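User: Structure with iron/sulfur cluster, tokens only please.
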Amino acid sequence: MEYKFQKPVHGTIGTTKYQCVIEWRNGQFIADEPEKNGGKDTGPDPYTLLLSSLATCTLITLRMYIDRKGWNIAEIKVNVNLFQTKDGDNTTTFIDRDITFPAGVEPEQKNRLLEIAAQCPVSKMLEGNIKVRSYVYHEEDVDKKLKYTNGDITVVWKPELCKHSGRCVTQLPKVFNLKTKPWVTMTGADSETIKLQVERCPTGALSWIPADKDE
Ligand code: SF4
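Assistant:
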């Protein structure tokens, strides 16, 4: 099992209602709630973010397909919205996606593009099986660290952040091996190889520091 992102999307909320700072791999943005829900509408709300994900995935997938085919379609537009119905404890969510192409796009092309839109990765994910797994951490747990050194670099492992995704174990078993004690063998590879692997830990459980900076 491998996470999609080397670094997870990170979110923080303080006491300002309900402004969240979302950090992604190349920057950050604000999310909020509309005023009617007690927020200040300074950024997209959670439902908008979800729909934006589908809208962008649809547009990017269509653009890739159109470019590969060499079709002359300058612009694609999409509207995405949702409504929900309740039946007792069951909530069903309907997401409607309306795609608009400029005049001149043939009906067969539109039909094919509709099929391609339905195959975009976020569509497939939303229509497939989704399980949200939640884990709880305390700041003090996150501070727990175990260290392993080869005299050149020191690998720091925070057990509470390790989701046991197995990436390090499968990709560099000579160093990361759950059957050995300790589970990190710093003589199993050179420092550069270990550093590269450590930087691929998806949860931040692994990090490294130069050994001479280790207190
Ligand atoms: S340390 Fe990181 S890469 Fe290794 S198993 Fe834990 S989460 Fe996965």
